[in-house]
Structure prediction request, 270 residues.
Amino acid sequence: MYRLGVDLGSSYTKGVLVDENNRIIALHCVKSGYNFNNASMKIISYFAEKYKIEYPVYTCGYGREQIKTPFISNSELIALSKAVYEIYKCSCSIIDIGGQDTKFISVNSLGQVDKFKMNRKCAAGTGSFLEEIAFRLDVTPAEFTNLAKEATQEVKINSFCTVFAISEIIGMIKNGATLPNIIIGIYNSIILRSIELSLVEDRLVITGGLPAMHPTIVTLFKKRYPYSDSPEYSQFLAAYGCILLNSVKKIDSPHPLNPSPKREEEFPLL
Prediction:
């Protein structure tokens, strides 16, 4: 029997399957769409083809209670903190950049949440912000990363609003700014929105779908905070933490994502 954690996010739903020792066996991700129950069933059906799932499943995220399968819901903040602490075993600051919001979580030396802040006023600095800009510029995440490597200087993005930022970027292109320089500006704009939430006082851990698909953001974070890190498959950590919160069993590995879980496709995150 295998246990399943599901993070039903505003943009994507992520599933993590573990064995009796809490070792990750497989990962899967689908778009959340308008129906969280449908999204969760896609996750469950995917794993059920090969594995026997133990119920209830453990959920977190926006749609954590909007499924029909037996479940136990959990706080996304606490679940994510639990998983991050399981990896690093120390106090840290977490910046989680999701599809609709950005979260700052301070975790103490016992793995408990000391404080958190969330950006809910505007989508600027979130995955949807970058997704909208990419759509307007007709650039994929892979192209974003490659173009960023060609940047010679940063073009500062001043607008906080997604709509105004797009207009500002179009104006910059019209005035001769190169796309690589603009992309570095976009990345740094996202970072500035993130660190405005709270002061980073210790090790910084960057999680979420956006840093997973845009590694240049992690590199830029590290220039500001040399002791920062972004663990592999960080967008799945909240789902994994749901299982840890409901388990007395311990994992043997110092890193729950090593060895790497089975991966049958690229995860379509942002």
Summary: The CA atoms of residues 2 and 143 lie 37 Å apart. The chain has nine helices and nine strands.
